[in-house]
Amino acid sequence: MAKKQAPKSGSGRKIFIVLLLIVVAVGAYMAYTYYNRYLAPNVTDSQEYLYIHTDATYDDVYKTISGQGIVKDSASFDEAAHAKHYTTRVKSGRYHLHSGMSNRELINMLITGKQEAVKVAIKNFRLKENFAGFMGKKLEADSAAFINLLDSAAYVQKFGFTTEDVYTMILPDTYEFYWNAPPHKIFSKLYGEYQKFWTPERRQKATDMGLNPVKVTILASIVDAEALHDSEMPTIAGLYLNRLKKGMKLEADPTVIFAEHDFTIHRVLNRQLSVNSPYNTYLHTGLPPGPIMMPSLNAINSVLDYKHSDYLYMCAKDDLSGYTNFASTVAQHQINARKFQEALNKRNIKH
Fold first, then answer.
1. Residues 342 and 274 grouped into a single domain
2. CA 323, 328, 332, 337 torsion-angle sign
3. Average pLDDT over the chain, rounded to an integer
4. Same structural domain, 270 and 292
5. Helices (H), 113-212
6. How are the residues of the chain apportioned to helix, strand and coil, as percentages rounded to the nearest 5?
7. Residue 44 carries which DSSP code?
8. Calpha distance 65→67 (Å, rounded)
9. pLDDT per residue as tens digits for the range 66-82
10. 161 inside domain
């Protein structure tokens, strides 16, 4: 009987190698696809921040990302977003982008809502409208949303204020807010900082003067508007406190300018002193119903730590340096005032 021939091992080895190559090729393709979709650098340097508005959908986010060139390959971002179920987990906010971020890094940041807060430097704006306009440029909510709350008696009453004096709650400083935070949360934080500032020690100082935090801040707004040099603030504050104690009208020119709402005035004239307004301290005794500007912290502290004196009158120096001549008597004040008026006339400053 003839012997059976053993199959050639070479053909089996070839099949194995082919299958191995296919597996390697498929694996390499899958690895490349995974890398390209999730791990490859994709975020460009075209934008520093991605802003996602409240109630935005995934389509809105995708249009922003692709339209602003935030990623090099928007198709791979879209694939990764769907694979990671980001399309149903959109969170609004302001997200800090870094050039070279992968889709996975970007999407994980968006899913977790890990946004970066906005640093907002609130300065001593003159009017509530100025403050609201500034905030509307820095945050998602527009200026109208801020004004509507400041002008809502029911809302500001929750904090113990009126619509006329609520502006005293806002202290100039640098704050951190989330870009998409609604105005009511912004005001809650501002109120928290207000409470921190008004320590028991500061409140006691106000009480000792016969005032409260609101009235101190209103007086500070007048002091701040009056003083061109911070070094004079404690003296000016002491002068006004002397007038309040004696029941004298404050007769502060900045309150007349505020009542007129004409902030181009450099010289207050007699006809302007009779403007009918509760803010006109030439007509009304005591403090006005609200601040005439957002005072600096230095002005508030200058009221709390005012300089004791017997001054009742003040007038700008005739050298127009911005410094003040203080007086205890009407006679001395009239001399100072005459010199100042002559200096204005000499320079043809009529209004």
1. yes
2. positive
3. 91
4. yes
5. 128-138, 143-150, 153-157, 183-197, 200-208
6. 55, 10, 40
7. -
8. 6
9. 999 999 999 999 999 99
10. yes
Q: Is residue 72 part of a domain?
A: yes
Backbone phi and psi for residue 329, each to the nearest 5 degrees, phi listed first: -125, 155
Residues 262 and 141 in one domain: no
The tokens for 82 are 């769907």
Angle between helix axes 213-226 and 297-304 (nearest 10 degrees) is: 110
CA separation for the pair 237, 308 (Å, rounded): 9
Query: Scanning the structure block, which residue is given the tokens 């807060």?
Result: 117
169: nearest Cα among 208, 239, 216, 135: 216
Count CA atoms closer than 13 A to 349's CA, side-chain side: 14
At 24 the pLDDT is 65
Helices (H) and strands (E) in the chain, counts: 14, 6
- The radius of gyration of the chain from alpha carbons, rounded to an integer in Å, stands at 34
Residue length, the chain? 351
Q: Which amino acid is it at 328?
A: S
Hey, what are 281's tokens?
């301290």
Q: In 3D, which of 209, 214, 184 has the Cα closest to residue 295? A: 214
As a whole number of angstroms, the distance between CA 316 and CA 293 comes to 21
Residue 289 contacts residue 258 (beta carbons within 8 Å):
no
Summarised one tens digit per residue, pLDDT across range 104-113 is 999 999 999 9
Quick check: 123 and 161 in contact, CB under 8 A?
no
User: Would you give the DSSP letter of residue 121?
Assistant: E
* Distance (Å, whole) CA 9 – CA 23: 21
| 281, 187: one domain | no
In the block, residue with structure tokens 């929750």: 158
